[in-house]
Structures are given as structure tokens and as C-alpha cells.
Amino acid sequence: MARKHVRRSTIVLATSASAALLLAGCAGSADAGDGEEPQTITFAYSIAADAQDWYEQLAQSYMDSHPGVTIEIQKYGLDGYPSLLNTQLNAGNGPDVFYALSGTGQNPSVGPLADAGLVLPLDSEVLEESLPEAVQAGWVFDGTFYGVPTSVQVNGLVMNAPLAEDSGIEWTADTTLEDLAAQCGGASDDGIAVLGLAGAVPTAPAITALGFAASTVYGPEPDWNDQRAAGDTTFAASDGWKDALQAIKDLDDAGCMQPGAEGAGFDALTNGVAGGTMLAFAAPSSATVTLANASGGALQMAVLPMPAPEGLDPKVLLTSTDGIAGNAKTKSPELVKDFIQWSAEPEQAAMMAEIQGTLPLGGDTAELPEAYQSSQELLTAEGTRPYPPVDWPNGAVFDALGTGVTGILTGQLTIEQVLESMDTAWG
């Protein structure tokens, strides 16, 4: 397809919302307001400034249906939230309800917090009825729920499909890594970065690498995490992990990323797609709604897998890692449990999926938002893989991956050194 020279228009974002958020799911109570325990609780989470606030909408909906209950919202910046939450919970003055991540391999993952006795156990019988088994992983430890997901998301990339078409760039779910790299030079000449990266914030390069690992590592070996846990393999010995990191280096060498990607912040991603100078970046699929809302509907992003190297099938990562949990030291344990368990009921889960632009917790992909149409065929058991960090033993592995990718781009680290650091972090 012949490339076309495109005249780009700048889209003004209505909020300072960010790609950070992008990167960033009842107990049938009588009336929780009738109890003797305090009926005012706090709900803390991290969010980019002025971003669409679906958790506040969730809290308001609960208060509307439970007269007498007050939920006070506490919003924190994305970078400082994990350490602040850990400090507060350990000091005994943490929020009653808080945003958490599933599993053990991210921060703040619910597993280590529960192991430390800091998370309120929930009613497992109630939640087993409310939540499909597929989304329970990482929220249940020793048969007990310690939190619930608030969404099911695709972790791949979000792409400005109209800009790609206007620019003459062919990019679909089947586009290979090599085919995409071959188009980057021309796009760069037109002032367009095909793939954006916020290298200064470890989360962004980490999820970019995971997007490639979906096809190079977990596509051929879905049980790779189990092999690593058993000591049967290592990151450094894995050809698939080497290929995932090499893919990022190859795209950078081909001019696919924006100048200064290794030192860029989240604002480079939002400003890039809004200004028509960037096609795509790695992010959870809720980014499609956040960007559309922030631009007044002008930005219409599509959800795609990271391009797979020739000879490999593309895969997307499905994750129910975002959710909420309760403080074990809350003075209102019954109210906290009721709110959290209520949020997982089908009606509330459907509401959250709609306002976040995510998949329903039940996994029904029959009527997907338009953003998912280009990847709909992949959203089957064969085309998806679970989000790997959920099963990693600690958040240090994820951090080593993120900082390591940036080190590769700056030339300070080799692929081998990054993988060795991930093995060291694994322990």
C-alpha cells in the first residue's frame, strides 16, 4: 500500500489525564447503614490528575443505594501510591478500602499484603457465586478471597487507527514485527513515531516488553512461569525472553520510537497521540476510553496485540489484576466487606466495564466495544495468555524488567544483563 503524506491535526485533551492511568473489578446486605460500627469509610487509590474517575463513580453508586453510608475518597499520585499505602497499612492508619493488584509480582500486590496480615478476608462463598473462576486468580490465597477485580483488560497496545490509515501504515492484528519495522523509516520522515515509549517510568517499558513476551515466551510455552518457579529454566536461558527484548531494540533501531523515548514521561504518550505525532503505545485497553473522553471523542483508539516476529502467532495478555481490597484493621469490617463484595456483583461489574471500556468480568466477548473489533478473533483461549507478573514472586522482577529495557535503549545494559538481573530479583 502506497504511503501517503498526511497533514496532522492536533487534538486538545480536555484533561491532563494520562497515559499513566492507562498504564497503569454482595453480600446481599440488608442495610449496611444499620450497623453499630462506623458508617463512614475511606477509599484510597492512585490516579492521574483529572483522569476519568470510575472508582469515585463506584463509591457514589454504593452510597446512593445504601442510605446512611459515607465513602470518603482519597486520591494519590501514581508514582508514590504503592509505598505510601504500604507505610500506612503497616502503621495501622491506612484507608479502609484501597486499590490493589492481584497476585504477588507487582506493587501493591494483594498477596504479600495478605501474607503480612494487612488485608481483610472476604466472604469466599459469596464471591465464588459472583465471580467467574477465570477472574479469581491472584485474589484467592489458601481458599480465601482477599480482594476482587474491577475489570478484565487486554494488555497489548492501543493504536490510533484513523491516523495509521491516513499515514498509509498497514497495521493489523496480523502485522509482523518485521513488517512494522519496515514502515517506521517513512513514518519517522513524516514526523510520526509508530510506537511510543515512556522510558523514564519503569512501568511503561515493562508492559511493552510483556506485550512482546506474550508471543515469544508465553505463546509457545504457556506454562513458562511454572517452569521458572520449578527451577527448570531462567530468564537468561530463555530464547523467548531474549527475542522479546530484542524486538524492542530492533524497533528502536528502525526509528519506530519517538526521539528521546528512553527519557520520556507519560505525558509524551498522551501528547504524542493527541498531537498526531504518535500512532501507538503499550497500555491496558481501558486507555481507549480514557483517551477518547480526554479528547472529547476525537481520539478513537484500537486495541491490538504487540506485533509478533515472523513464524510466531500474535497473543494478547488478559488481566483481571486491577481491583480493590480492605484493610484488616478497619473499624468497619462488615461495611468494608459489603462494599467490596457488592462491587463484584454482575450489575456493578457491568457498570464498571462500560465506563472503563474494559471486558465484562464474565468474559462475554459477543458484543465488544468498537475498539476491540480488530482483535476480536484473538480474544479466545488460543489467542490469549494470563498476565505473567501475577505469578512472579515479587515486584522486583517487574521493576528489573522496566529499568532494564530503558538501559538497553540507552546502551548502558545488554539484553543478557537485563535477564540476569530479573533472575537475581526472582531469588
Automatic annotation (TrEMBL):
Q: Matching PANTHER family, A to Z? A: ARABINOSE-BINDING PROTEIN-RELATED, DIACETYLCHITOBIOSE BINDING PROTEIN DASA
Q: Which organism is it from?
A: Microbacterium trichothecenolyticum (Aureobacterium trichothecenolyticum)
According to UniProt, the name of this protein is: Bacterial extracellular solute-binding protein
Q: Which Pfam families does the UniProt entry name for this protein?
A: SBP_bac_8
Q: Which Gene3D superfamilies match?
A: Periplasmic binding protein-like II
From which residue to which does the signal peptide run?
A: 1-32
Keywords from the named record = Signal
Q: InterPro entries, from UniProt?
A: Bact_solute-bd_prot1 (IPR050490), SBP (IPR006059)
